[in-house]
Amino acid sequence: LSRDLNELGVNWITTDNGGRYTLQPAAEAKILRPIVSAEVLSIVANESMVVIKTLPGCANAVGEFIDVQKNSDIIGTIAGDNTLIIVPSSHRKTNAVIRFLKERLIKGKK
Question: How many CA atoms lie within 13 A of 56 on its CB side?
């Protein structure tokens, strides 16, 4: 059982309140990708920011998914109800960020 859980990205950690299972961020991202991809409606950008439109109430989950990816080209995300703003580290990185987002959120979605 321990090996199976490890393969799924689940680890046992000890805390002051006892032990608990946690999901590794990479495993979390792998599990959430199909769900998050279904929530994304569009990705558009100008030279300084990227805007993602999502289904109502889904921008926060998509933003958390992007944050877990820890892309150094992204300074941060700001989520509303159905709109997410992604701030690239510089205007020169905007195209790289768009490619990254489309790879993570749109690839394989039809």
Answer: 0
